[in-house]
Every structure is written in structure tokens, then in C-alpha cells.
Amino acid sequence: MPSKIALRIGVVSAIIVAGGSGCVSRVTHEQVLDELEKVREVAAQQVVEDEKRLAEARLANEQIAAQLENLEKDKITIQQIRDRLTITVIDRVLFESGKDSITPEGTEVLNEVGAALKDVRDRQIHVSGHTDNIQIGPRLKDHFKTNWELSTARATSVVRYLVDHADIDPHLFTAVGHAYTQPVAENDSEEGRSQNRRIEITLYPKNLKNIMAEFEK
Hints:
This protein has helices at about 5-20, 30-65, 90-95, 105-115, 145-165, 190-195, 210-215; strands at about 75-80, 85-90, 125-130, 175, 200-205. The chain is about 50% helix and about 15% strand. It contains 7 helices and 5 strands, in the order ααββααβαβαβα.
């Protein structure tokens, strides 16, 4: 659906085109100014509404972060950018090497995360799996052909656990694997590779898809 502002701009454009076509009997300078003023009013109201939503999202993010502050920092990190919140869990906490089944330690962490997210209703929850750039070895080839399959399977395992054990609405979730394509550190050391092997749980505005659709038109 077109936004209010886009509709208003369309009206103003039509008036200007009509005026340029010589339809001066129906189109006046005052009408154009009136429509432009209405566009400005709608835009100003949109800014107010957006700022309100942003403030509400920030407050909700702070409350979620506060619930997770007791978890050790070597297990998870939390980052907030505007209305987006990202919870990053190092993969060694959640999974054994080359596996996608969640460890007992991982279930404890996800129980805490699930408790913090259980009241989420107005967000999308994007769970992404990431690996280092070390290729899957021969021993695991029968189960995971590449890091793409491994990262995707791990993201799916986290989603499934949160849905089954935290009772979070499954419609809020998206699971995706990025393999080694989005590193946060260099892969030339074990320390860097360890940082790259991770699960990210990111909360976005629920209307993000609608916003992106507007930009793509």
C-alpha cells in the first residue's frame, strides 16, 4: 500500500502536470500550495509517530538486555542500534564442533534468552547462523556438505528450541545460514575464527518487510 506521503506527493504532481498542460481554469497556485502544506503536515506527523515507535522499541530492548545481563559476557553479547537489538551467542556455547544439536550449556543460555523474549509480539526475530572459513572435513561430509548447510541447520535448531521451550510465536521467526560470508573478525587465527562461529538473534520492527517494499517500488 502506498504511504500517506507518497499519495499526497502523487496528488501534488498531478496538479502540477495539469497546470503545465494548460488546465489553469481548474488548477490554481493556491491549490498547489494547499496540497504542499498538507504533505508537510503528513510528513511531520509521520516523524512524530516514528519517533514514538523508536522510543518504545528502545525501552523494550533495554528491558530485554537487562534480563540477560546476568549471563557471562564470554557467552553472549548484546548490541542495540536504533530499534534493532542483536543477541550474539558464540557457537561453542550452543553446539559441539560440527554438530547442530544444542548442548546442555546451550539450553541453559537459550532458556534465559527465551524468557527475555517470551513477551515479544510486535517484532520479527531473525536468527542467523555463521561459521568460520574452514571447510567441512571428510568426517562430516555425509551430514553437512558445506558450511552453508551447517550454519542453516544451527539457526533452525535455535528457532525450534525457542518455539518449543519458550513458547514464542513461530510466525515471528526467520532462520537463515550465512556460512563464512559475514565475518566479524579475521579468520587467520583461532581467536578470530572463534568469534566468527556464532548465532545472532536479531529483533527488527515487525513492519520491516512493508518498509522495504516501499523502497523497492
